[in-house]
Design goal:
Oligomer: single chain
GO molecular function: ATP binding; ATP hydrolysis activity
Number of strands: 10
Family: Belongs to the ABC transporter superfamily.
Helix content: 25-40%
CATH architecture of the largest domain: 3-Layer(aba) Sandwich
Order of helices and strands: EEEHEEEHHHEHEHEEH
Bound molecules: adenosine-5'-triphosphate
Keywords: ATP-binding, Nucleotide-binding, Transport
Shape: globular
CATH topology of the largest domain: Rossmann fold
Strand order of the largest sheet: 6-7-8-3-9-10
Structural class: alpha/beta
Protein name: Abc transporter, atp-binding protein
Number of domains: 2
CATH class of the largest domain: Alpha Beta
Radius of gyration: 19 Å
InterPro entries: AAA+_ATPase, ABC_transporter-like_ATP-bd, ABC_transporter-like_CS, ABC_transporter_ATP-bind, P-loop_NTPase
Strand content: 15-25%
Length: 273
């Protein structure tokens, strides 16, 4: 179970979900989500395929808007466009293939500094290149800074995507199955790096995973997304909600088995793997 000490967690609410719901036309994806997340928490999200985990991250990022209820950051509704206070890393294809590793990190910040041109020049650019190099060192990619993404392994590409997100100094880091495609050994290295970054930079993290063990190991808190109501004739009539909200340090073997069984039951009912 979790080996993380939530030393970076404060008592200050950063994110608040009040009766939050999200639908696409008649398809209800999420309904009645209620929770408060303090600054510095590491929330891991598990649930069956299609239950709305990525949709929830998109609401936090601001690329999707809530349909009902509220999603607040610092007590204010999250703006409906991505801002530098939130960074995201996807399972794949987060980086630009035509840019070098170094330029991939630089561009993350260039769009923040010059929203019209997406470029900065002169002394500003020199400083940005230096900062990019520092981030590449932090994620262990200094030696690859002049390479292109196709020359990197899957793990290196995810390190690059993390550097690209972190150069904007986000307060909230959103990770959508970032290690799902990686080999177990590489995943272990990535876990270590993410935990170090989370603690050093006092990030609030939301991470989607399909691996319950990974969720327990990394998080300080684990959410299970599931449907409490199911209409077999109209599966889109009801959405998922947070059915388990557990402080991970207090999770015991019985809770683990209970969540595992619940997920298995949902998988069978929904016919998804
Ligand atoms: N832009 C969209 N328009 C219509 N429906 C959408 C849209 N985005 C997502 N959905 C639907 O919302 C539901 C939830 O999708 P989402 O990707 O959030 O699930 P998930 O839990 O992340 O799944 P997975 O674990 O397979 O990645 C799916 O049925 C999907 O088809």
């Amino acid at each position: 179970m979790s080996t993380n000490s939530p030393t970076t967690t404060s008592n200050r609410t950063l994110i608040e979900l009040n009766h939050l719901g999200k639908s696409y036309d008649d398809h209800i994806v999420l309904e009645k989500l209620n929770a408060k997340v303090n600054e510095g928490e590491f929330v891991t999200l598990v649930g069956t395929s299609g239950c709305g985990k990525s949709t929830f991250l998109k609401l936090l990022l601001g690329t999707e808007t809530v349909s009902t209820g509220e999603l607040l950051l610092d007590g204010k509704p999250i703006s409906n466009e991505p801002g530098p206070d939130r960074g995201i890393v996807f399972q794949k294809y987060s980086v630009f293939p035509h840019l070098s590793v170094r330029e991939n990190v630089v561009i993350g910040k260039e769009f923040v500094e010059n929203r019209i041109l997406g470029r900065v020049f002169g002394k500003k650019r020199k400083l940005l290149l230096e900062e990019a190099d520092q981030w590449l060192e932090t994620v262990g990619l200094s030696a690859a800074r002049h390479k292109y993404p196709h020359e990197l392994s899957g793990g290196m590409q995810q390190r690059l995507a993390i550097a690209q997100a972190l150069i904007k100094h986000p307060r909230v880091l959103l990770l959508d199955e970032p290690f799902g495609a990686l080999d177990p050994g590489i995943r272990k290295d990535m876990h270590k790096m993410v935990l170090e970054l989370w603690q050093q930079h006092k990030l609030t993290v939301f991470m989607v995973t399909h691996d319950l063990n990974e969720g327990f190991y990394l998080g300080t808190r684990l959410w299970v997304f599931d449907k409490v109501r199911l209409d077999p004739h109209a599966p889109e009539r009801f959405g998922s909600t947070i059915t388990f909200d557990l402080p991970v340090g207090k999770v015991d073997q019985t809770s683990y088995q209970s969540i595992d069984q619940t997920l298995e039951h949902s998988r069978q009912q929904l016919g998804v793997c």
